[in-house]
Amino acid sequence: MDLTSCTDKSPRCQPSHAAPSNGDVQCSQGNAIGSECSFECNAGYQLEGEATSVCQENQQWDNSAPVCRPIVCLPPHVAPADGRMSCSDENRANSRCLFSCNVGFVREGESVSRCQDNGQWSSPAPFCREIFCLPALLSPTNGAMVCTDDVRVGSICSFECEEGYALEGNRRSTCNEEGGAGVWSNPTPVCEAITCLPIHVAPANGEVVCTNSNFFASVCEFTCEPEYFMIGDDVSVCGRAPSGGIFGIWSNRAPVCQRKSCPPIPVSPVNGQTLCSDGNFVGSVCEFICDNYHRLEGDYSSQCIEFLDGTLNWDKPVPTCEPNLCDHQEALAHGVIDCTKDNFATSQCNFRCTTPTYSLYPPESTSNICQNNTEWNIPMPCCARSCPPYAVMDFIVILDSSSSVGDDNWFKMKNFVRNFLDDFSVSPDASHYGIFRYNRAVDTDTQILLNDYPNDIDALLNAFDEIPYDGSGTRTGNAINHAVDVMLKEGNGNRPGARDVVLIITDGKSQDPVAAPSQRLRDTGAIVFVLPIKPPQRNPNRVITLDMDEIVSMTGSEERVITAAIEGGFDALTDEFSVEVSNMICGNPCDHVLHTHEG
């Protein structure tokens, strides 16, 4: 209770002013007339209404009591885009608003703004500006770049190079914030060309061709000259090294061109030597030379060549050097041979006859020497007896008894033959005789075979004397066939080791062919002589001549045609002429040595 009012009844203003909420009031005289009340608000509040109120005479306050309203800053701050805001008391007086930006953004403005008592913010709200790493990174030359978020903070740019290039530098760069600015963690790397070292060069005696020098993926192909072969691979490719980097690695080492060669040089033949033009390399020709008195058996040279299958070898085998040999000299019948080196070159053979009545022929040929040209310096002699009388032969006499001969001439012919036969010795190691006459037919009744009188010349001559003269016709071809088919048969005494000699005595042209029978005769190995006799000229009006072509066809050679009686006729068949014919038939005494051999 206001005690004054009980005691003081003076006019007053009712109700008295009370302090506003969140404020205070001071009155000069309470609520008495004339009292002035002053209002104020607590900090953070402001008066809404008049700050004073006076109690008037009418006992009314001239102003209503004000209200303390909270002070606020308008407009209220809001969080910046891409940022955050935190206020201590929203937008009321003395509220502090703190501002920050998200990662990748930087604040533009104050970080704190205070709501002042005047309702104004101490600073405007800031904004968040996005941070960029500038300048932007570029893709490296010969490479590519991929960034996760362009040039913004946190963006990671990755780099890679094209095939054949390697990265020099960091493979990644990150956009970082440093002092409100964007900074790349690493500069853009460089894509360097991958190269392989060393650069392939042509091997000695070869060539190399590369598609792109020593750069990545370059293919180098190697070749060797024709006379060389390759050791190693013929292709090498430049590729990446396992560890990466700008230095690559060749897939293969450069090969080597080695000269093609055959197996070792052929060894020199025994008793010889080898001379090669270029060792055992391909194309080399090795010549083989034999020592003196030796001859080469095989090829004179061998060349190192490459065969179709690629193998290398000598095209010819090594020959042998054989001693130079003369033909082997057969055993000396009726004598001995003593040689210093058999039949080898430089060997000297000495000859000596051991059988009585046999002597060397030619007499001066007592020795011969095997020369380096494989020929004996002189032929081997023989041990022979003198001819006549000694001649080892099976002698066949064919007598023409045609009518043109006549009795007188037949006698001359037989006498000539008898003297001829008597010049030779008849024995197993000398001469055997076979004799027959012919005209149109062969007289087989009186023929003498080779084995009829092998040891008795007297009996032979007696049988010869009994051969008659008669007949007509001249079938010489038939007579020659008889000599082949009968007289020279082994069963009739023909000896394999004795020489066969046939003497044909005729005075006329044959009435049958003689060429084929004569060839048959000579094919047996027989030596054929013909004694053509000019026939008697009984008719002066008819000239009879000899057919010399026919006669030569019988002997096979003009040398064995006995021509002395061609003009002289039967009168030429003298004893002297008989000796000449004997010597002619004897020829070389060595042809009349009996050899024991099969025919």
UniProtKB/TrEMBL annotation:
Signal in keyword set: yes
Chain spans, region Disordered: 1-24
Every VWFA domain range: 394-581
Keywords, comma-separated and alphabetical: Disulfide bond, Lectin, Repeat, Signal, Sushi
Secretion signal, residue range per the UniProt entry: none
Occurrences of domain Sushi (ranges): 11-70, 71-130, 131-193, 194-259, 260-323
Gene Ontology terms, MF aspect: carbohydrate binding
SMART domains linked to this entry: CCP, VWA
Highest rank taxon of the organism: Eukaryota
Pfam families (UniProt xref): Sushi, VWA
Disulfide bond residue pairs: 41-68, 101-128
PANTHER family: PROTEIN CBR-CLEC-78
Protein name as it appears in the record: E-selectin
